[in-house]
Amino acid sequence: xxxxxxxxxxxxxxxxxxxxxxxxxxxxxxxxxxxxxxxxxxxxxxxxxxxxxxxxxxxxxxxxxxxxxxxxxxxxxxxxxxxxxxxxxxxxxxxxxxxxxxxxxxxxxxxxxxxxxxxxxxxxxxxxxxxxxxxxxxxxxxxxxxxxxxxxxxxxxxxxxxxxxxxxxxxxxxxxxxxxxxxxxxxxxxxxxxxxxxxxxxxxxxxxxxxxxxxxxxxxxxxxxxxxxxxxxxxxxxxxxxxxxxxxxxxxxxxxxxxxxxxxxxxxxxxxxxxxxxxxxxxxxxxxxxxxxxxxxxxxxxxxxxxxxxxxxxxxxxxxxxxxxxxxxxxxxxxxxxxxxxxxxxxxxxxxxxxxxxxxxxxxxxxxxxxxxxxxxxxxxxxxxxxxxxxxxxxxxxxxxxxxxxxxxxxxxxxxxxxxxxxxxxxxxxxxxxxxxxxxxxxxxxxxxxxxxxxxxxxxxxxxxxxxxxxxxxxxxxxxxxxxxxxxxxxxxxxxxxxxxxxxxxxxxxxxxxxxxxxxxxxxxxxxxxxxxxxxxxxxxxxxxxxxxxxxxxxxxxxxxxxxxxxxxxxxxxxxxxxxxxxxxxxxxxxxxxxxxxxxxxxxxxxxxxxxxxxxxxxxxxxxxxxxxxxxxxxxxxxxxxxxxxxxxxxxxxxxxxxxxxxxxxxxxxxxxxxxxxxxxxxxxxxxxxxxxxxxxxxxxxxxxxxxxxxxxxxxxxxxxxxxxxxxxxxxxxxxxxxxxxxxxxxxxxxxxxxxxxxxxxxxxxxxxxxxxxxxxxxxxxxxxxxxxxxxxxxxxxxxxxxxxxxxxxxxxxxxxxxxxxxxxxxxxxxxxxxxxxxxxxxxxxxxxxxxxxxxxxxxxxxxxxxx
Length: 868
Known about the structure:
The protein is of the alpha/beta class. It contains 20 helices and 34 strands.
């Protein structure tokens, strides 16, 4: 057996370069992979390089001498052709190709590269990671314009300054000390100090809350305050009636009062959850000064606007450990969120142990190099080749014991965990795991066991591909074994909740993005249609599936939750509420609300027709979206960009007023565009259960990225889900409305910058929230700078060096006559933002300036006309 001496993976480097979007006038882009051999060995033609990429590559476009195959999902393989010249030592080759849609950010580059060599007998050698990866710099507009409709410029120092121009630093003592904003807060004379000699008195049913409060105070006091049952002690916890006047918040959820005076602290909730929220408000008031806890005397009376105040996390695409989930639960609790939508399964992973079906986690809980997926799933989202690597975000699951612990942890913080088990689409991990189970029992000769939980009709010739480029990722709804599988999973999940002594009230079944073409050539589905003559269309089959799953949950006293698709029907070219399913009490989460996309009315249409709706609007509440269009600002952007203000602007009961710009940055004339749009009725308003933020994990491979993408946006989510409607919402006169809004946003931005971000610096050993880049401009020879959240410290240099915590803070305009000025924003722990650069001699920002931008669109229009 001959083995060529080839460079190791660690001696290879790959650069991804975006060459041009709107390639040949179409929604396509040209890019290239530059493969470099940094070794002293020849790279022969006996290799395959595998990688993950979120765009479909056109195979005929690949550069001469090479080929790229789409395997499944986001998984691709690059190989040389037989007659391609070997890659010599210390040399490189550029391999161009064309892909669908566009790529305008560094996050768009392929990831998870690894190489596999073969010997002369075509036997594979061990896979090796290629970790030396980078994205080429963005230097021209062709790299950042998506198509002829894209009029959204890349942010610059000047544009950021303009964005922040209405923000001013307010006196901290005048800012509300608590977010979400309480309905009633009245300060009183004097202060109160918590001392180590105090004790906590609690009503008998509030022992857990008393223990939580004692633990919360321990880091400040150095010891735990003793807890005593009864209405005694300097701090008391109780439940009872709370009268809150002059409020429209009537959800009945989480009401509490917090009273601090010279005699002590009294917290009362209408139920235990309310008392807990009072404790969280106390948490926000705490100061630690010379080992003494000093609080202002005040009275707070508060109640939530919505009963449902949720946060979603996807662990199917990339896994996150139990400790990370606990941290998220604590962050949710601080801001009084109460529903954790735990997305446990998807095409790329199954993350919860199911007793009796070990294949779900043996196969679905691991990803690595494989051709038959008999031991693990294919790599996705950069998870790499090793299915046993504990540091790979593709590998991992929660044991039954882990899940029970998570449930108890959330329950102790009054957060309900809503598990998401996705069907019928987004189910490839389950589909493949049950195929492996089938093959194992078949080989043992036990066909009854093999077919017991099978999700695949082996004779199905349906041809389909999901939005995420997956084939064979939908369970077959014509098989009885599919429903037997769902019953098994539901019963085992219920058992885990029973062990945790926590109620399971709903399961989220997904139900979204079922690809066209599914079930069309399935003999199993045809047999079902023959038995059920009313089943004629794919919509009928989908409805049948939803009803069957709903029945499984309903007889177990659970609600069926899902994305909006579970409550919609496609009929005569229109998408409308599926009134035939109304009696089944489905709980749809409305997400596909892109401005100008046609789905803006869906939430109100469903609510007006009687469905209980959770608002999960992508354009305001998808926190995996990038904060802005900067090529180095990571995140998805298919639905636009979402900064904290975009979430703060969100108006649940007046959605159309939340509209600003469409996906491509074009200003929306909301008063005209939505003049005749469907309005929410008073009855429909009662059916809006609440709000939920979404964090999908395709681009999130560590806990720091969770912090970065969630904060400070999750703070704005909490404000919208809990606090009263803002005053500016009711003002019709445009100028007065805008002025009132500017005042409110300035206050909220100051609360974040001066109170919340410093709080997060010390919360749970520090939260790695996003620090915004400063805005800056030169005017009349002076440097002016500002920031999105007043209170953060801006530091600058004039010698071209990177600003550090030791450099001068910006406090007022200064001379700006240096050639290069650099600025950064700093936190209380001296973490810093990315660098804002003003290069007065060679202004790199000029490539994003208006004149060049306009010229680029002329070129696009010319190419478009030529091609047509």
